[in-house]
Amino acid sequence: MSSSAMSVPLHQRRPLVLADLVAGSRLRDVLLVVGGAAFTGILAQIAIPVAGSPVPVTGQTFAALTVGAVLGWQRGAASLALYMLAGMAGMPWYADGGSGFHFPSFGYVIGFVFAAALVGALASRGGDRSPLRTIVTMILGNAVVYAFGLAYLMFDLHIGLGTAWDIGMKNYLLGDGLKILLAAGCLPALWRGVDALKRTNHER
Description:
Strand order of the largest sheet: 1-2
Shape: globular
Number of helices: 8
Largest sheet: 2 strands, antiparallel
Structural class: mainly alpha
């Protein structure tokens, strides 16, 4: 790497995602994809039911978008696709230990795959390097999740957009806002921590 490239802080270089800092190749990628799916499955068990809605408040969205940002669009999409397909096949790691695909909130699971891809693509272009950029990136990712989630609710329950908004989005915006702020605090801090570590090692 040239001296001019080395002078640029790591968290400002592009394209690069946090997972690229892990040494390895194909085996690394496989482990990261499986690990991202497992992480999403673990956070999915943080589930709070919402009265009058088939959609619980869970940690899935935060996990899916964070996995996308950390792994990048290809590995992120693959990780959430693995999460979705394994759950469809019977792996009990959807919310509340659920599995399959015959339930109204399955559209959100589909949305995780596309949201992880979008967030990963934006992260590789600096979308997770500062709090403001991370907030914008996560809002866009959430929008993708809601687009698929509400569309599937409308299809599965035979309801209109207004009803889908009431039971599938309105009551979740505050929680998603808090998750976005958490990501905006964590991801840029990780980049700056890595940058500081690299700078310290370079000066030794």
